[in-house]
Design goal:
alpha+beta
Length: 137
């Protein structure tokens, strides 16, 4: 094992499954040229919906987002990766942990990625009429 290999053990890693991967582009910026937090929340919501849909076998909706902190800004050109992990399944609800990690525009090495936010999304399964249904019906 080389010194670099042992350093990789200390590098934080995303938890869960890669659900979305996209590029933060200029069209995603606010009027000051920054990537806004709302854009990140939208990506996280889409990833949570995909993960919940796989678990519930269909339509679902976000009913809550538990504590979210933005740890660092996202720069234009960053590769944004959204990871999801199902934490709890209730009768009609699914709690999903969502993490967002970015690699800066010129980052080449895995250790250059960093977590920028995380939250727990609470989703509910819906039937074709938009009514709450059992997750496993």
């Amino acid at each position: 094992m080389t010194p670099l290999d042992s350093d990789l053990d200390d590098v934080p890693a995303p938890q869960g499954q890669l659900t979305l991967k996209l590029l933060a582009s200029r069209q995603d910026t606010n009027l000051y040229g920054d990537i806004p937090g709302g854009w990140l929340v939208n990506q996280m919501d889409q990833a949570a919906e995909l993960a919940a849909g796989r678990e519930a076998g269909g339509r679902n909706a976000t009913v809550a987002i538990e504590a979210m902190d933005f740890l660092s800004p996202v720069r234009v050109g960053s590769m944004v990766s959204v990871y999801t992990q199902v934490r709890e399944i209730g009768h009609s609800s699914i709690k999903i942990d969502v993490e967002v990690w970015v690699r800066p525009p010129h980052g080449r090495h895995i250790e250059e990625r960093q977590k920028v936010t995380e939250a727990r999304f609470v989703m509910v399964a819906l039937d074709d009429n938009g009514r709450i249904r059992a997750v496993h019906s």
